[in-house]
User: Fold this.
Amino acid sequence: MKGFIKRFSASLTAAAMFTTMIAAAAVAADTDGVNWQKGTIRATGLASGKNRPQARRAAIMDAQRNLAEQAEGVQVSSESSMRDLMLEYDVVKTSVNAIIRNAREAAPAKYYDDGTCEIVLEMPMYGSSKSLAAAAFMPYKDQEKEPFPEPSASSRVNGIYSDGLNIYRNDESYTGLVIDCRDMDLNPVMSPVIRNDGGQAIYGHKNLDIDKVIELGMASYADDTNDEISRSRAGDNPLVVKAVALQGFNANPVVSVDDSDRILIANQNDQFLDNLAVVFVK
Assistant:
């Protein structure tokens, strides 16, 4: 993703870091860590004090430190984490720190007999200017949006494409796109890229309105092609295709050229890619 990130200098080191971060982020609902399905990051703080107010303040500070560690480890793309962007851009670091300071309490404070206070803080990954996505994509807010590529099919007559072997019709209306990546160890990232097995990128942040990306995220991660997350994001009649491979530390789905043509043709009618109605099933 030229101009978007810096590549790691050593691929083996990058792969090891990525694997470690993803393992730490793969947590169940309502536990500490990154919840990609809910789009939240949660951390717990524990501290003691002479009295409850003092213990509470110390617990909040501990939770904020833990939340910062979680946020820095979030993968923005297959090659870049939030930590990388914070080192590269001071404005990103400042924004992330402000978001952490304003994280909400996700549960009532707990006080124990030994004087310890427990605080749980949660911050959103998407949804507003006070989300992690807003910080991650801040350097690229003014980027010029690139059009989606044209299908590889060579001719179009009355809504029908043909490459001489296959015929593609765009007369069916789709509400979204679901890419089935089950049994492929897909790793969630904030800025995934969809490619075809011819090497062409057909969906990435450069094709999208960054304000929409900040609000919605580029894709949702679901457990099934027809679960609640899939339906709420991709609608009742999504185009469902099967990934043929994963690239970029297993973060970027790859579809066949035929399926990428189907996606691009359908999107010209229904704009589901423009609307970020995209779901990855993992």
Observations:
- The first strand starts at residue 33 and ends at 35.
